[in-house]
Each structure stands twice: as C-alpha cells, then as structure tokens.
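ugh ok so i messed up the first submission bc i forgot one of the chains. this is the corrected input, ALL of the components this time, i swear. 366 residues overall. if the numbers dont match what u have on ur side tell me asap before i send this to the collaborators (the ones from the other lab, u know who)
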Amino acid sequence: MGDEGPQRPDRVVRAPVDGAAAVRRLLRPRRTRSQLIIGALCALLGFGVVTQVHQASEANLSGLTQDELVRILDEATDRADALSVEAADLQRERAELESGSDTREAALAAAERNAAAQGILTGRLPAVGPGVKIVVSDPDGQVRPLTLLNLLEELRNAGAEAVSVNDHRVVASSSFVGSAGEVVLDGQLLVAPYVWYAIGDPGTIVTALGIPGGADAAVRRDGGRSTVTKSDNLTITTVVDAAPPRYATPVPASTP
Amino acid sequence: MIALIGLALGVVAGLLLQPTVPTELQPYLPIAVVAALDALFGGLRATLDGIFDDRVFVVSFLSNVVLAALIVFLGDQLGVGSQLSTAVVVVLGIRIFSNAAAIRRHLFRA
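and heres the new structure output, hopefully the right one now
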C-alpha cells in the first residue's frame, strides 16, 4: 500500500448514517480490490479466533510463560510434598495394623494349642502318641468295677493323658459301676477282656502298674490277669461329646 | 458484506483444518486476535461515521496485530510478558468497548 498509487481515488467521505440505513450501508456489497483485501483480512481474523479458541481449550503447558510454569511447578512440588507426608502416615498406620494382626494371630495360635490340649484331656479329640496296651482278662467274671477304677487311677497317677477301655473313651466324668463281671462304664456294659489303651510315658505306667499291692495285684486278687504291652505309637480314635457346662461359666478374663 | 463472508470463510477454515499453533507463536496469537478485533470494530465504526477508508483499515489492522505481538514479545524479553499482555488486552478492550458503543448509537440511535 504505497501512497504513490496514481489511480487511487480521493478519500470518499459520506455522511454519517443511523438506524436501518446504517445496516444497509454495512451490508452493501462493494466489489473493489481493497474490499477483497479487507475480506481476506477478516478471513484471517476468523481463522485466528477459531485457532486460538481451539488452542485455549486444549490448555497445554507450552503456551504458558516462564513465570506461570514456575508457579505451576511450585504448586506441583508442594502437592507432592503433602502427598509424600500423607503416604508416610498411611504406611505407619499400615505397619501398626499389621503388627496388631500379628499379635492377634499369636493369640489365636495359642488359643488353638490350648484347645487341642483341652480337647485331648477332655476326650473331645482323637489322640496319638507313645503309651501302653493293657489287656485285663476276666475268666471267672470276678473283676469288680472298683478294681478297674483302681487301674484307671493308677494310670492317671502315672501321667496317662488319654485312656480308652474297649473303645470307650475314659474322661474325668467317667464312672465304673455295676457288679463283678458286669462292669458298666458310663452306661455301657463292658465285656471282658478289657482292652485298655493309655497314652503316656510307657515306662512310668508299666512301673506304676507293677508296684506291689497296686493295680496289677488287685486284678490278680480278683482272679483276672493283666498283660501290659508298651507301644511307641498308639492311636486312640474314640471320642466323647463333652456336654457344655450347665452351671459353670468361665471366670471373665478381666477379673483378677 | 465481503468482510462478513471472509470472516465466515476463515471460521470454517479454522474449524476444518484444526491447525496447531507453533510453540513460538503461542503467546502472541491471542493478543494478535484481540488487536485484529479492535481494528475490525474501528472499521465498522468508521463505516457508520462515513469516514471509512480501505487503506486506513488495512494498515491499522496489520499494524495493530504486529504492534501488539511486538509489545508482548518485548515484555517477554524484559520479564514482564504476562503483565504487558494484560495491559495490551485492557487497552484494546477499552477501545473495542468504545467503538462498540459508537456502533450501537448509530444502529439503535441510543
């Protein structure tokens, strides 16, 4: 656009217009070269506007100035610091919870061991271990319940932990009643020979049974005969169902 | 009329092409667009005032765009780029508002 254009007309000055005439003047097509240039510039403007809107909606970092980038970086760093502190807190809490569950597992394992021991002692669980097999024969039918009770007491004194007679588990509440030759154990009539299995230290049990005037001697006095066999691996499979206590309840743990 | 058609053509072209602005130009494009808008409103007002001149419009359009971009560029070099772009946008915004007010008076006589 030079000033030297010879064909350029003098500047056209029209009167100001208002209202509808103004709209008409704005929209009137004028097909001159400069109008085409103006149209091209407006196209450029529209193109630029759309491009910028599109660009701004993408909101990427490359359009930001250095100051803004530094500020964003600062914010990100602060946020990362806060998050790492939070992560450390959570990890500590997790470690505490894990150790807490370890304690609980240890208590549970102890309770299970306890339950196993109690189960064997009360006859609720099958038991296996070293022990003795005692066969008490009663050819004359003269072995009294008291004799068998003596034998049981002797076994208990010798440390027998699980005892069974003729496939009946003998527990703390077991009783030998009846009469000679018709011994009833916990309501079950026992038929001779009486086969005992006792899990405990075999040596101790054999010695205990054999002491003068002891269980063996009592059986012989009744006309019976007992044979003791040591075993390294006895299995007592019979169990009893321990009835839940009707009156007694455990002492609360918190009570001294 | 031709200007309106050109504007529409430009918008359509921008929508269709979805161009990516080069990284070096990204800080200047918004300022350039605002400057061009200022020139456009100035041209509209001049038309209604009856003093529109093609050459003035073309020169003011181009010089506005280049000058605004230059100011922002200078501000970036001086470390006050964001503040200077704000200043340019404020000034151009005021001009656009006053031009729009004049156009409104012509169109609605109010």
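quick check: Chain B touches chain A through 50 residues (CB under 8 Å). that seems consistent at least. The mean pLDDT of chain B is 86.
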